[in-house]
Amino acid sequence: MKKYVYFFAEGKADGNKDMKNLLGGKGANLAEMTNAGLPVPPGFTISTEACTLYYKNNESLPDEVWAEIWEALERLEKVTGKKLGDKNNPLLVSVRSGAPISMPGMMDTILNLGLNDETVEGLAKASNNPRFAYDSYRRFIQMFSDVVLQIPRRLFEEELQKIKEKEGVKTDPEVSVEGLKELIKKYKEIVKREWGRDFPQDTKEQLKMAILAVFRSWNNKRAIEYRKIYGIPDDLGTAVNVQMMVFGNFGEDSGTGVGFTRNPSTGEKELFGEFLINAQGEDVVAGIRTPLHLDELKSVLPQVYKQLKEIAEKLERHYRDMQDFEFTVERGKLYMLQTRTGKRTGMAALRIAVDMVEEGLINEKEAVLRVEPEALEQVLHPMFDLEERKKHQPVAKGLPASPGAAAGRVVFTAEDAVQWAKRGEKVILVRPETSPEDIAGMKAAQGILTSTGGMTSHAAVVGRQMGKPAVVGCGDIKVYEDEKKFEVKGKVVKEGDWVSIDGTTGEVFIAKLPTAPSEIIQVIMGKLPKEKSKLYPYFEKLLTWADKYRKLGVRTNADTPHDARLARLFGAEGIGLARTEHMFFAPERLPIMQSMILAETEEERREALAKLLPMQREDFYGLLKEMEGYEVTIRLLDPPLHEFLPKREELVEELHKKRRILEAMEFEAEHSSEAEKIVEELEAEIEKLEKLLARVEELHEFNPMLGHRGCRLGITFNEITEMQARAIFEAAARLLREGIKVYPEVMVPLVGHVKEIEDQKRVIDRVAKEVMEDYGVEIHYRVGTMIEVPRAALTADQVASVAEFFSFGTNDLTQMTFALSRDDAGKFLNIYLDKGIWPKDPFRTLDRDGVGALMKIAVEKGRGTRPELKIGICGEHGGDPESIYFCHEIGLDYVSASPYRVPVARLAAARAALQEK
Amino acid sequence: MKKYVYFFAEGKADGNKDMKNLLGGKGANLAEMTNAGLPVPPGFTISTEACTLYYKNNESLPDEVWAEIWEALERLEKVTGKKLGDKNNPLLVSVRSGAPISMPGMMDTILNLGLNDETVEGLAKASNNPRFAYDSYRRFIQMFSDVVLQIPRRLFEEELQKIKEKEGVKTDPEVSVEGLKELIKKYKEIVKREWGRDFPQDTKEQLKMAILAVFRSWNNKRAIEYRKIYGIPDDLGTAVNVQMMVFGNFGEDSGTGVGFTRNPSTGEKELFGEFLINAQGEDVVAGIRTPLHLDELKSVLPQVYKQLKEIAEKLERHYRDMQDFEFTVERGKLYMLQTRTGKRTGMAALRIAVDMVEEGLINEKEAVLRVEPEALEQVLHPMFDLEERKKHQPVAKGLPASPGAAAGRVVFTAEDAVQWAKRGEKVILVRPETSPEDIAGMKAAQGILTSTGGMTSHAAVVGRQMGKPAVVGCGDIKVYEDEKKFEVKGKVVKEGDWVSIDGTTGEVFIAKLPTAPSEIIQVIMGKLPKEKSKLYPYFEKLLTWADKYRKLGVRTNADTPHDARLARLFGAEGIGLARTEHMFFAPERLPIMQSMILAETEEERREALAKLLPMQREDFYGLLKEMEGYEVTIRLLDPPLHEFLPKREELVEELHKKRRILEAMEFEAEHSSEAEKIVEELEAEIEKLEKLLARVEELHEFNPMLGHRGCRLGITFNEITEMQARAIFEAAARLLREGIKVYPEVMVPLVGHVKEIEDQKRVIDRVAKEVMEDYGVEIHYRVGTMIEVPRAALTADQVASVAEFFSFGTNDLTQMTFALSRDDAGKFLNIYLDKGIWPKDPFRTLDRDGVGALMKIAVEKGRGTRPELKIGICGEHGGDPESIYFCHEIGLDYVSASPYRVPVARLAAARAALQEK
């Protein structure tokens, strides 16, 4: 018979940590912790297979599963010496969800299950603490009603408030036993009214309902939304953990807390966490009461603190990673409730990974695999500009829950955050506290600011996970959600006002602060001495390891010597894409470029090109020099010529204006020679404008993306290619003469047919030969092509017979493969993502099935013709970790990313290589 | 040792007709004719391998080849009893090119070779005809100088003219022997002056130079151009035929002619051709003298005529096809010089193929393979509208050299024809005569009109081959090429004036005559009774045979019941593409469509759609009804919405105008209540315009081809799909109720991801279910997708899991695969074709390597998922024969073509199936 229930107690468990799929993360950990000899309250786990069965079985469990559950319950009763529903010594249990992949706060939990009108009295007697018993009971009713019966929590909160008012007390623990009893009566009335039946007194019935409710919660709206955001499959299912309750609300020698074995924000090696005396776990997680730092436990319960420190060490040795744990102290006895790999900021991830290698806990490869490329991105995130910041006084300070600097306009609801962000606004989501319903809004915001909650509150946990700056528990601010404003020290901040928050310090500013590069970038750029940076050494070490293991080369996309220099500092090994067109937009060059375009004969065109030649040569000289020793791939002119001319509308308007002035002047001109002169000048200007307009109209294209651009320009006007090739080779020749080793690669864009590259290569090779003869040097160069037109990929065997390298232009390749204009996609991209038609924005993450299929064809066919063919990627996907994994898989030689993304690419490339095994 | 020279004489030849690649068409035929016992002048053929060797060997022939040639010459001397260079009985030979694929008039020919100052006298004696001998000599010098020495022909013509003037005669034969001798002297002076050496007197040297010149002519400019146009490989090479001369200019019992075994213009079974008495072949082909019809030979040389008729029958039995032959009569003795499969008009091809089946010469399959789809196109070409034509008097009548009607503006040079055509002008090329240099211009023109030349002149032959209407030898018109005008009966027609020509009757009109459908189309459309058409029965028979053998279905692209009806008459088996957007452009519908687009809420949009529903239903009702019993594929709304709104520029202008009026009126309005009213109205109009403009700007796209269109619309606005599906299914349901069998297929455009078709199919299936329930009928329908986005082809396995049929939209697929906007390609398409980068316009003929590769992937992957998947093509390539062959090869189920192209598609499909074996 299939086993659905897994028992754990007294140092021995049916499961272990490798059974996450079956027992969920929490269940597997409870088993593992039990096996590891940690003081875990006993219990049993109902497997995810039971969840799958539940959904298959029309949202119910078959009898044989129930039989197994009741058997486990009996074992639990035996182990604990207590009995569910026993009025003298009642067993109370927690019922918790636990999926194979953690979804914090997404599904339901019920505590104190097993209490009813009778057992509550038994508990009161057994514990000798009636207050605790009745408080537990009223909490249980409230939670059960919320989670299982789905009665609004608000109704119960209102009654609690009333009682407090009636008794004239402020906090929950101050409510009297009588008050609690009255409250329980009221609560039961609410249940009767709202649910139509009495609150269940049968404790087994309670357990049954709770288990089913947890399974049901797998498919609640917020869980589905969470899975969608994080790409978690819907069919994994959740397990249910039933575990003996231990009580942190048993008096002043009791308490409950959460902790991390290291600081999840900075990565420092210190016991980090929070606790509340005389409270249950939910109070900590929900962030309703602001808890105390774990350090303070040292003085309150020193023995427990010592034990906790030992356990933390044990945990890290056991799990070989930073752990996030929950514990409860019941009358001075420590229980470990759960542990799991702790979420951390990018900064913490980096530091922990490197530290653990030095502590001998993990090896270098593991360290590389521990740091997600996204984490590295975080540490490269901007901070506030230090100079600017000095000018501003923070208006308040909260907890520095998730590091990084963010500025944005204030919004007060998740929906608003989403809406504003869609309009392109940067927003800061300000809330009293956040809840799982706010996920989408948090994702859309630049940062999060809450008035309540601690370092492990929802806002803090999710903020760190998302890499969003967050300041939480900022008690100075008072949020009026309905009025869409908050007050802070007498100042009123309304929706749309600018605020800035610093998640690293907890500071809040009522201003739009400019941001500055991160510490690491400042070190790299020489603006901050290495010694002054705590973080940089970690960064350096990790990337040194990454470089050791990666197989992909990492180049950069850079058009200027400045960018090239920066990219080299970031570790780029050459340039994968230097766009030449940007060079023509400089104010002193544009008119020459325009005269080239307006030329009516080849001769005129050559004249203008001759003027551009020395300028281009300078450009390439600088680029090649900065990248000494590395290959520099220069792409020939790509955009359609009309991009260099003024817009039609502007010209028409200017013509209109000039003509109107002319009309007005003409009469005057008959009488004044000065006016006559102006008229003549005007007429000349108008004629020039008319000519320009005519050319603009002639060059107009319905679909410029599919128009007269790329190599089509070079083929139509060989002299343009000639000039660019000459500029490249002359620059190279000069540098070679100066003793600088350069390796130019000339890249022909938009090739779709082998004869296109053939035509262009003929011109380029001829010019190269001429320049080499003129300068008497040998230039090592290659001529290759972008693979950005589907046809080039499909006929890569032919193209490779001429091209000496390929570089995937995945921006355009994605446009063509999807028939999707990047400039226009915004009109329906969100609808497509919302409807789940595209799993991800294909311009951000490579589409493996479509664009990827073309890339595979191109690699295979290209290398079929020319086995030594060098293949890279220079589309923006070259800086996207997931896309980099794919590039590694299909055997590219290198990726090329923007300078700032080079470190991310280096790490991603290493991870791809290490994950392969 | 390799054999390079093939001998033929006296009923026995080294070669045969199957050796075309080696001996060229002419050489193989001479061998075959010799073997068949025809009276062929003896000679030998130097193979194409020698030509290849010539080019490999640095444009010269190795000694061993020369040795073989001299050996063959000795044999020839033995057989003929004459000797090359013998002053008493000189052997004269012709030296002619002959490539494996015929290139009429493209390469060089030399006649009368072997004459020199001595042999001319020997010939004069032997023939007892000094005039003939000296005339032959002067002709030989002229031709040799032109072809071998490349001295301009004009120089010789001028001297001939001078002699004629001096002797006061008009025609060449009238020149006296003394005159000819003087002419020879002058000719030799020209040679000495131009070439720098004496005219070669060594006859072997003459032969050597002539052979090399023929090989060289393979790569002359016009031959290369010809090969480019007709897609003939450059490496085939030409053979050289050296053959004993026979003389048509031996007196009144001699002559020369060309003939066809059937009429190449109409296909009638009659000996057809022309001859000249006392002339050599070049006089006929060049069209300088207008020859006599072969019929007249009956009275001039009855015995020869009889023999010729017998030989024609023999030729057809032997070659099983209509033959084009050249003959010469030397003193009453008939020699056959060459024969080859005759070029013919479409009409003749059709008729000959069908007649030959009935005569038992060939079978049905062969008949289908004999008629090129392009030939069928010709018979469907328009004729002049009969009513209109009656109103016009032809101004002149020439020879009806190539049938069909054409109207265009007059141009006088091939270059002008090309230039004007590039600008989109229709032109008629008018020339005294055409020559191979005019090919490009003839191709660019609508039709050709010449003042000289006969039915086998260059203009006539090439015109028929190209399917261009041509009127030749129109002696009434006098062409002044330099002044760009022609005169006809006192009227002057200048460049750019409109003329119309009828190649079927030879008539010329100075007017732009509207054209009317061809006879066949008139019969099909019921406008001409079947009995009254000569051509229709042939057409019907051939297509019946085609239908028997084809495997591809043939559907049509039709949006209206009228087109659907027409297409059925042409033999369409269903509709492959009905575009629904055209239906919204009707004046009464456009405003509703616009209000749908301007709707701000789903509700408003649904309101507008509800108004469109009954209209669409009517559309589909008509279409489905006309195609009873066949499948009708209806494509959902495809173009971006902005196509239905006015253009931005127009709106801005109108707004400007209205605002200016408003400004002017406002002052007045303060004093007049009437003006006030106008102002109010204006303000309302302006507001409406502003709203419209705002929406137009919102909908503006940079690349509409890659924008918010196709299924992206239906996915964004499910209600549009819903309305269209409802209209389709309600129309179908009504027809089914009326007992009419209909098979609608709903086609979702621009699918790139399986989830797109999934989304749309869900909507369509739901509506279908609702309609079927409402109407109580079962509709047999399919939901499928266009394959026009590369990604759809690449992921066809996924797409086919939902789509029930595929239809290749090769227009868009070509755009995406090439990254080429059809609307913008014109800017460089010609450069690409000229440079040979694309072999053909990819929008006309499917690109096999690129687009074809995607299609193959789609067919393979699609059928992998769904073996019964129906796959067709609805792009315009579906009517292009070459593309249809490809569709057959990759196993499509059907092609869909525009109604007029349906017969062509039926024939092409049959040929594809028959050629497969």
Brief write-up:
With 917 residues, chain A is α/β, with parallel strands linked by helices. In chain A, the strands form six sheets. An eight-stranded mixed sheet of chain A has the order 13-23-22-15-16-17-18-14. An eight-stranded parallel barrel of chain A has the order 25-26-27-28-29-30-31-32, surrounded by six helices.
Mean pLDDT of chain A: 91
**Total helical segments of chain A:** 36
> How far apart are the termini of chain A?
36 Å
Largest interface: A-B, 49 and 49 residues
Structural class, from helix and strand content of chain A? alpha/beta
Residue fraction in strands of chain A:
15-25%
* Shape annotation of chain A: elongated
Largest sheet geometry of chain A:
8 strands, mixed
Index terms:
alpha/beta, 32 strands, homodimer, 36 helices, 917 residues, 8-stranded mixed β-sheet, 8-stranded parallel barrel
Describe the structure.
- Chain A is built from 36 helices and 32 strands.
- The first copy, chain A, is elongated, with a radius of gyration of 34 Å.
- The mean pLDDT of chain A is 91.
- In chain A, α6 runs antiparallel to α7 (177-195), α13 packs across α15 (373-379) and α25 packs antiparallel against α26 (673-699).
- Chain A has 917 residues and is an alpha/beta fold.
- Chain A has an eight-stranded mixed sheet with strand order 13-23-22-15-16-17-18-14. An eight-stranded parallel barrel of chain A has the order 25-26-27-28-29-30-31-32, surrounded by six helices.
- Helices cover 48% and strands 16% of the residues of chain A.
- The longest helix of chain A is centred in the last third of the chain and has 27 residues, at 673-699.
- The interface between A and B is large, with 49 and 49 residues.
